[in-house]
């Protein structure tokens, strides 16, 4: 049988890795796919020194691939929203299947792209868009298809986890670790996407859609990054038996779905609290299976290529099948998606870590307790440190039971207006994940 012809757009970290894996494992891949997979053309602005492309034709024009009649599958690895969208839509219009690692593209334009792909009967595969090399899309979409999924929570940004781990373990400075993540090819072109949680929100949007059967709604995800975390809070969290992780959380509730990315205290003895460096992990809780945990490299050249190539094998196997009988892009049949709303953050429910900088006066603790109790907020634990020499203030750290966010917002406003409280109250959400 003739080889399946693939065009790779973008020869950066993931593009280079994909070319190398396809070449190195060509024989094994053909045995799995039933046909050889040949890279017929590459579109790239410049060569990648980590990738020996030999005789493979190179072009600087990405659209040449989408127009090349020889090519069956376009692999989009250029990233970004605009050009990538144009390229993918053009490839689809030309009847080509698409494999992409682009989480931003899928989270923001996925509904449009999948509708167009359905109309043309082509596949758009995106395993590499979430959690690098971990096959979590396939696991949720196919492996957990029996379940009503209640919630999922994941460390889904390798750069952010690498930064938090290095800061906690080695006391390194934020900017220094970020630079290393960039040099290793983990960070996004715009690293604020990593540290401000946008990349994680893209991935969470995708996970929530395939877990709950809802349209992609990135604009409704709540996003908070790690750039304002202090080493003091990392230390106090440890003292209380928690680790701070940057978590994406999606939860089904009676009134809607929670979709939120933020720093989170997790009990230190949970497996996911011990996921460090660039590693990612996603917990998925289904009514039949209970809790599951998927772990692996969340970024990097070959881990991400592993997911891209697995998608290529899947596409090769399915390309001759009846489009109506393929696994739906978003796991659920497109006419069966739920319109249950995404909740605004003030309607979400969580437990909270609060750090209050109190003046060293009698009665402040009693006032704090009154404000919380008047709002029905139950305190789980409390820790008060000694007076800090530099400002004469006393850090007071509280962990609450679960409460709706609007109520904690109201309590924080009241706390900040107390004469005995200085400055802003630090608030970090807490999840038990059990
Ligand atoms: N910048 C992303 C991360 C790359 O650090 O996780 C993988 O999506």
From TrEMBL:
L-homoserine binds at residue 188. Pathway: Amino-acid biosynthesis; L-threonine biosynthesis; L-threonine from L-aspartate: step 3/5; Amino-acid biosynthesis; L-methionine biosynthesis via de novo pathway; L-homoserine from L-aspartate: step 3/3. Gene3D superfamilies: 3.30.70.260, Dihydrodipicolinate Reductase, domain 2 (3.30.360.10), NAD(P)-binding Rossmann-like Domain (3.40.50.720). GO terms for biological process: methionine biosynthetic process; threonine biosynthetic process. The active site is at residue 203. Keywords: Amino-acid biosynthesis, Methionine biosynthesis, NADP, Oxidoreductase, Threonine biosynthesis. It holds the Pfam family ACT. The keyword RNA-binding does not apply. NADP(+) binds at residues 9-16. Residues 353-430 form the ACT domain. One of its GO terms (molecular function) is homoserine dehydrogenase activity. It comes from the Bacteria. Its EC number is 1.1.1.3. SUPFAM superfamilies: ACT-like (SSF55021), Glyceraldehyde-3-phosphate dehydrogenase-like, C-terminal domain (SSF55347), NAD(P)-binding Rossmann-fold domains (SSF51735). NADPH binds at residue 103. It catalyses: L-homoserine + NAD(+) = L-aspartate 4-semialdehyde + NADH + H(+). InterPro entries: ACT-like_dom_sf, ACT_dom, Asp/hSer_DH_NAD-bd, HDH, HDH_cat, HDH_CS, NAD(P)-bd_dom_sf. The keyword tRNA processing does not apply. Belongs to the homoserine dehydrogenase family. This is Homoserine dehydrogenase. It comes from Pseudomonas mangiferae. The lineage of its organism: Bacteria, Pseudomonadati, Pseudomonadota, Gammaproteobacteria, Pseudomonadales.
């Amino acid at each position: 049988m003739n080889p399946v012809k693939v065009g790779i757009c973008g020869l950066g970290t993931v593009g280079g890795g994909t070319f190398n894996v396809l070449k190195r494992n060509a024989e094994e891949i053909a045995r799995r796919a039933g046909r050889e997979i040949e890279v017929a053309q590459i579109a790239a602005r410049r060569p990648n020194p980590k990738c020996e492309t030999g005789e493979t034709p190179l072009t600087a024009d990405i659209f040449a691939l989408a127009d090349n009649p020889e090519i069956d599958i376009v692999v989009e690895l250029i990233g970004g929203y605009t050009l990538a969208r144009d390229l993918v839509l053009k490839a689809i219009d030309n009847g080509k299947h698409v494999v992409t690692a682009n989480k931003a593209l899928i989270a923001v334009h996925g509904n449009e792209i999948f509708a167009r792909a359905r109309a043309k009967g082509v596949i758009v595969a995106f395993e590499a868009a979430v959690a690098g090399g971990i096959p979590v899309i396939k696991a949720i979409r196919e492996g957990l298809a029996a379940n009503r999924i209640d919630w999922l929570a994941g460390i889904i940004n390798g750069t952010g986890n690498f930064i938090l781990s290095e800061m906690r373990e080695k006391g390194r400075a934020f900017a220094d670790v970020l630079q290393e993540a960039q040099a290793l090819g983990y960070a996004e072109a715009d690293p604020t996407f990593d540290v401000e949680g946008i990349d994680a929100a893209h991935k969470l949007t995708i996970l929530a859609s395939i877990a709950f059967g809802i349209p992609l709604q990135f604009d409704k995800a709540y996003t908070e990054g790690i750039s304002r975390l202090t080493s003091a809070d990392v230390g106090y969290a440890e003292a209380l038996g928690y680790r701070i992780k940057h978590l994406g959380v999606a939860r089904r509730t009676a009134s809607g779905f929670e979709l939120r990315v933020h720093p989170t205290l997790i009990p230190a003895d949970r497996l996911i609290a011990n996921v460090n460096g660039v590693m990612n992990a996603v917990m998925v809780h289904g009514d039949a299976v209970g809790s599951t945990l998927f772990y692996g490299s969340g970024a990097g050249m070959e881990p991400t290529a592993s997911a891209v190539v697995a998608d290529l094998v899947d596409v090769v196997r399915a390309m001759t099948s009846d489009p109506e009988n393929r696994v739906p892009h978003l796991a659920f049949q497109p006419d069966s998606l739920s319109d249950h709303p995404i909740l605004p953050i003030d309607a979400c429910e969580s437990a909270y870590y609060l750090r209050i900088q109190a003046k060293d006066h009698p009665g402040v603790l009693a006032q704090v307790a009154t404000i919380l109790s008047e709002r029905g907020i139950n305190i789980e634990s409390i820790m008060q440190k000694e007076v800090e020499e530099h400002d004469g203030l006393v850090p007071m750290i509280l962990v609450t039971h679960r409460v709706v966010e609007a109520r904690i917002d109201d309590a924080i406003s009241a706390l900040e207006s107390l004469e005995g409280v200085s400055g802003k109250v630090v608030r970090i959400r807490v999840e038990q994940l059990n």
